[in-house]
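User: Can you fold this complex?
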Amino acid sequence: MEVIQPILAHFNHWITIFLLVAGLYVVVARGNMIKKLIGLSLFQTSVYLLYISPGKIFGGTAPIIDDKIEVYSNPLPHVLILTAIVVGVATLALGLGLVVRINEVYGTIEEDEIFTQEDDEE
Amino acid sequence: MIAHHLPVIIVLVPLFGALLSALTKRGAVAWGIALIATVLTLAATIGLLGHVLHDGVISYEIGGWAPPIGIEYRVDMANALVILIVATIATVIMPYARVSVAKELAADQQAWFYTMYMLCVAGLIGIAVTGDAFNAFVFLEVSSLATYTMIALGQSRRSLLSAYQYLIMGTIGATFYIIGIGLLLTITGTLNFVDLAARIAVTPYDRAMLTALAFITVGIGLKLALFPLHVWLPNAYARAPSTGTALLASTATKVAVYLLIRVYFNVFGISNIVGDVPVLELLLVLSIAAMFFASFVAVFEKNVKRLLAYSSVAQVGYMILGLSMATSTALTGTLVHLANHAMMKGAAFLAIGAVSYQLGSVSLERMKGIGRVMPVTMGCFVVAGLSLIGVPGTVGFISKYYLVVAAFEKGWWWLAFMIVASSLIAVFYVGRVVEVAWFAEPSKEAAKLKEAPLSLLLPTVALAAACVFFGVDASLTAGLAEAAANALFGGSL
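Assistant: Here's the predicted assembly.
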């Protein structure tokens, strides 16, 4: 139990780290440009969890001041992540836009096939 | 009244310029808007610099919310210098942009190019001016997304590929940066640089802090193309439109270097970083590797834009070298090199852009004898090249002088030797271009060409002249850099 306790106490961080590494792995390991972007999105999304989960305080409530309430959760991470989500969406949209254009001019979205075309040109 | 709001005006003007450019849809009109916006930004920046010189540090509360709760824009000598570099380069390039962009881009894309140009400038100035770690991330992404689009607007279909690859790398870098900031937020509960510094100073330096430092270093390292995280840079610079390359090469990496300096010197405090883990020693090794490896690759590069891009990676090495020595003289060297490198790389890329405008190519083979038909353009390239080498009388010498002196002050004579040795490699890659351009017989194709149009020449000559002027009389640039270094070493912001 003493071994498991610290692991369970930080289970949110374990999930974050798993998603983070899984996302990064997909970016590195996959040659399909859409799959790479999915990995990148997963990688970015894991960071949302990194910010949000420590902001939650057990028994805490929304930060609206009231005499009866003494414990509040930290609202700052939510606001930050709202911004980060917008940034993430913009990045994904631009990335997908580029992939559409790449598909138009190269006829494929597999990186290795594109590189073979490039080698033929040179 | 307006003077009080200068810190936010320098971000808002290019931001609204971008919005208006996007609405016009016509290249010429968008160019006019961009010109007005950049000139206004430069004027506001000079006004701001005057204020900082006169009154010291300026703190501006966004929306009237006092820091550390609200976002604070904080201008001291260090970021005033960086903002001045960005605003000046963005303005100087504008006359060049009109002709070059009109030739390289399709008519319906030109307004979008200026939109991205303005967004990129707004983002870069934003990173420099903000005193809030998360706000810096947002501006980092604003400038990055604009950069990806600008690269994708390049002529060849490979531009799209380079933009995509840079998007993947850049996003990983920016995400690493917010992971680091997130860890700092969890440890200290604040995002304001000044507040962070105060709280980090009284927090024990544990593993979580070190992890945060590692994530931030790698994240910004990707953005500033620190060896070996530089692989995105040569393709991105080589395939962007000429005007875009000149802007990016002279400003984007500089702002990232500034952010790293700010985090190292003011947020963590340089004495904190010198801990059990040899962070600075690691940066020292990487920067020396960059100086030699990237210069060496540049010697064998056939595409001149790529050659200059690899040279940029090497020059970033010198900047990080100054940071990693962590003395006042070395930091002055780094900061003055930010300005000097902006001038020399700006001049070099503008000159090559002019060659590309006339010749339609930047491959070394086709540039045979181009110096004889385009003497002014290639003359500017020679001046920029001499600066890259660090010949006395050019700005490159000033930067390297400070770095060498700093190395001797530390008693690291071997490092002084390495700085000089790596400069010798620059002689080869600059020499190759100069040899082909001036000493080879012009090909039939090149002999028919004329000198580039005046609007392309003026900005190029202006930057090349600055390379010589500030190389002979460095009192202005080195003076600003020294004041900035002292401000950074003052400990608190």
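Chain A has one domain: 4-121. Residues 4-121 of chain A form a domain with the Helix Hairpins fold (CATH 1.10.287.3510).
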